[in-house]
Amino acid sequence: MLIHPWDAPADDGEWQRWLAAHDFGQLAVNGLPGEPPSLQPTHFLYEPGHGGPHGRVLMHLARPNPLWPALEADPQVVLSVTDDYVFVPGPWAAAEDVPPEHGVPTSFYAAVQLRCTAHVVDDPAAKAELLNRQLAHFQPDGGSARAAVGEVPYGRLLSGLRGIRLEVLDVRAKFKYGSHRPAYVKDRTAAALQEHGTPRHLTAYAHHERRR
Predict the structure, then answer these.
(1) Are 66 and 78 a contacting pair, CB within 8 Å?
(2) Among 18, 117, 169, 170, which residue's CB has the most CB atoms within a 10 Å radius?
(3) b/e for 55-94, b at 16 or more Cβ within 10 A?
(4) pLDDT at res. 106
(5) What is this structure's pTM?
(6) What pairing do the DSSP bridges indicate for beta strands 45-52 and 161-176?
């Protein structure tokens, strides 16, 4: 992923706050020899201050998932998360001395890529703890029973899944919202994003203004 200086996060806190609110991504696993890489869409829980130098990620997948042999053969993986994207029409970014139709279209988006070492969690008690940590994040108001080994309703289901703990070794983050553009382009873009007014345009507007 190309990251220009003006698209880089101001500090770790910027991408960590964004990642805390964007907890669905793609887990990329190298394929076995002669096989293509695997991409697994999944919810996850990112926990800064735990595990590796940049925190850890907790997730779980079904035991029949075909990626397990590849993951065990090579635990070096990437978790990729991209969101808050919009298409930016060319006229929004046109220079003052050229016709609007000469402006170059682009995309605005936020992306975080975590390079990790994966650790498979098979111990039943450890899996139950992992599931409960995820559930507390995704369902903070409760409403579901806790997972516990040998207890209903989820104890018997633990054997059907495997946990994954990702030790985050390196992070690449990007917030591409036209931060390097001239002030008149930023003003024009901000007005257009607000005028369109869809949830995605308004989210992109918030990023655009925050990073001015």
Answers:
(1) no
(2) 18
(3) bbbbbbbeeeeebbebbeeebebbbbbeebebebbeebbb
(4) 97
(5) 0.94
(6) unpaired
